[in-house]
Amino acid sequence: MIGMPPKNPLEFNVNANNYVVGVDFGTLSGRAVVVRVSDGAELGSAVHEYAHRVIEQSLPGSGRKLGPDWALQSPQDWIDVLRIAVPAAIAAAGVAPEQVIGIGTDFTACTVLPATADGTPLSDETPDEPHAWPKLWKHHAAQPHADRINELAARRGESWLPRYGGKISSEWEFAKALQVLEEAPDVYARAERWIEAADWIIWQLTGVESRNICTAGYKGVFQDGGYPSEEFLAELNPGFAGFAAKLATGEVGDKVDGTTLAPLGGLAGRLTARAAGWTGLPEGVAVAVGNVDAHVTAAAADAVRPGQMVAIMGTSTCHIMPSDRLAEVPGMCGVVRDGIVPGLWGYEAGQSAVGDIFAWFVDNFGTDGHERLTELAERQAVGEHGLVALDWFGGNRSVLVDHNLSGVIIGQTLATKPEDVYRALIESTAYGARMIVETFEKSGVPVEEFVVAGGLLKNRFLMQVYADVLRRPLSVIGSDQGPALGSAIHAAVAAGAYPGIEEAAAAMGKRTEAAYVPDEARADAYDRLYAEYRRLHDFFGDGQMLHTLRAIRNEAQA
């Protein structure tokens, strides 16, 4: 039986020499960290690079070509993280496995896979079929299916649509599943389960299938006790009517409308003998309910109170914020009760590409590399390059929710240099973040503190640009492994060391307040550039030109 951890009395003494393991499954790699329960000290970590990385061009083995905007992953890569990174982290920490009382995990989302009733990925059975493989969060080939879902939901006045800012994303469960149904109906028919990787990995660790409230709410359109109705789904496609049955599971948490969801910080089960063999941990160790990388990071930054927005900045950026009020924020990725911490509304927004944009530019045009381009860009005065860009190189997640949009750079001349473009791209992502913050506040959901986490924290110039553009101080997380630390904090709760996420975050999480403070003169200059960004945003946001260009590209590639 899965539910909340024991609370009274506490099963463990937090002052004792106990440890937990957090495992973060990212886009290109997985990392494990060993954390002391009493104070959150990180004693050892290890990273395993996925052998298959992101599968975007062709399938492993067969070499079968994939279409535009596809992005897949291999389940074997995830298992290898458990086999390689977890034992290595424990060894690096110098901790005896018997001292570990819990393990927690997080995943990119929506990363989702079709599986059999016993959890076997369909990619194991039919590796030559693209739709049998897990679809990574950045798989955007289901945009036409998302468009149809949004159009029908708006026409029918579905009550759940405003909880997602008026549009659901092509990255999420329903759009991706509808794509499978219509492009590979045999795969859809064989898929007895359609399951987030965040829940699948817990299944492998415990032998118990579960569905966490976070991914179900944000990526699975679970609101007010249920999924979209069979009537709605049948209108999309008669064969889609029973899709929610593929999301069903066993006894987990509180049963609502025939569906059971596991609470965050809950005890998902105990480590099986097989999983103990993979990880080197003792059989029976507590396993926390699955979660999303961005959402667990709030605990790692001790930012689980209303109005604390955490921006997890890496290849993309996800904006997470608890709140004590419910509002409809245009273009948000969802608002879910208990979606970050129990008892509060959890909001999510995001930018589909941030670090990916900088990497694209350097890989293709910036022969000087990130450090040199940053150094040259930092020497410029605000506006000196004469450029403004739209940060839509991976589509727009918030606030337009349209992954068929694309990047735009305005103002280039024969004098434009690589560092000019590089700086403009950095600034464009800061403008996108400001658009999100302003949209929340205009909707009556105040942002009291902006907290940054993720790999891009290493670029101090980028952080200062964000402070100047946002015109507000930036707090920063006190860990290089935010998601993994957050998962470890959830593991401590699941093991009974703390009564709840808030208490565990206060003891184990860490952040530095106002680490970056805006410069007033630069902020004034950025206000002028941001106004031009807004003009571009509104002009190209209707998608007419950018959609046409993408369609022409797709036709030519086909």
UniProtKB/TrEMBL annotation:
Protein's pathway: Carbohydrate degradation; L-arabinose degradation via L-ribulose; D-xylulose 5-phosphate from L-arabinose (bacterial route): step 2/3
Domain Carbohydrate kinase FGGY C-terminal: 310-495
The enzyme's E.C. designation: 2.7.1.16
Sequence ranges assigned to domain Carbohydrate kinase FGGY N-terminal in this UniProt record: 19-217
Entries under CDD domains matching the protein: ASKHA_NBD_FGGY_L-RBK (cd07781)
Gene Ontology CC terms, in alphabetical order: cytoplasm
One term of GO molecular function: D-ribulokinase activity
Catalytic reaction list: L-ribulose + ATP = L-ribulose 5-phosphate + ADP + H(+)
Any GO BP: L-arabinose catabolic process to D-xylulose 5-phosphate
Family annotation (InterPro entries): ATPase_NBD (IPR043129), Carb_kinase_FGGY (IPR000577), FGGY_C (IPR018485), FGGY_N (IPR018484), Ribulokinase (IPR005929)
Swiss-Prot/TrEMBL keywords: Arabinose catabolism, ATP-binding, Carbohydrate metabolism, Kinase, Nucleotide-binding, Transferase
Domain of life: Bacteria
Pfam families in alphabetical order: FGGY_C, FGGY_N
Enzyme class: transferase
Assigned protein family: Belongs to the ribulokinase family.
Annotated NCBIfam families: L-ribulokinase, PRK04123.1
Name this polypeptide is given: Ribulokinase
Gene: araB
